[in-house]
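Minutes, project check-in
Item: structure for the 317-residue chain
Input as provided by the requester:
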Amino acid sequence: MPWSIPDDGEALASVQSVVFQEYLEALVEGIAGTNCILAGGAVTVNALLVLNVAKASILSNGILRPVTAGTVTIAAADVTNPRFDLVVADSTGAKQVRTGTANAAPKPPARTANDVLLAVIYVPAATTEIAANQIVDLRVLRTVGPIVVNKVTTPVVFSNTSAIQTYYSLVLPAGLLVTGRILELKLAGDMLMNNGTPTITLTISFGGTVIFADVSGAATAGTPRKPWKLHMNITAHANNDQEYTGFVMFPALAALTAPATGLGDIALTTAQVNAISGIETAIDADAADRTLLVQMTMSVANAANDIRLESAVAELL
C-alpha cells in the first residue's frame, strides 16, 4: 500500500514506525501534486543490497517525467549503527538512493529539491541483505483526477514559414494512459492571416501514428487576429485501445470584422468546426513512452501570417 507507515511490531524495527518530518513533507507535496507518483514506482527486493524499482510516471515540481524500470543499490551498512536510506526519483526521473547517516537513533536524510519519494529503507548495522520488512512504501500515489500533468503558459509562435511546426508536445510515460484512464487536452491561441490566401493543416499524432489531419478553407487576407481552440479527450478502453473524441474550432478565415473589444467575430456560423470522433488506435501505452503531438502548417510563408499557441492544459481524469 503506498504511503503507509507500519504499526509498531509490523516491520523489522520499532524505529520504522516513527513518522519523520521528511515523510510528512513528501506527503504534503504529493497531495498538492507538486512531487508525486501517477503510476508505478514500487520498490521491491532483488538480491543482497540491490532493489528493484518498477517503471513509473511522476510529477516532479509539477512536470511529468517517466521513470524507467531498473535497480538501485544500497551502500554497505555501518558496522555499529543502523541508518535510513531514501529511494527516490529525482527531478529528471532518474532513480537515486539518498544515503542516510548511521546513528543509534537514525533519521532519514534530506531529499534533494523535487525528489519524488518512493520508499524508505531501514539498513541495520552490519546487514548484508535487504529484506521486504526493511522497505516502507512512501509513494504518494495520485489516482483520482483531474490531475494537471502539463500546462503551457508561454506563447508558442511560428510565422513566415510553410513547414510543419510543432505547437504542443507531451511525452506520456509508459503505464500512464492505461485501461480506464482519460487524458483531456485543451489548447487555445490565435492567428493572423494577412498575406495571400493561405490554408492551415492541423495534424494530431499519438505514438508516431497520425490520428487526425485536415486542411482548412482558404483565408482572405485581413489584419484582425482570430482565435482558435482544440479540445480533445483520449480514452483508454484498454492499454492498447485508445478512442479520440473532441473538436477543433478555427475562426472564419474569410474577411473578418474586428470586434469592438477582444478577438474573433460574433458570426460563429462562419467558423470552421471539425469534430474529432470515431477515431481509434491500437497503440500499447504500457509498453513504451508515447508522444502526443499537435502540429500546424501554413501553406503560405510570409511574416504577415502567424499562428500562436497561447495556452495548453493536459489533465489526467
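Outcome recorded: The mean pLDDT is 91.
No further action items on this chain.
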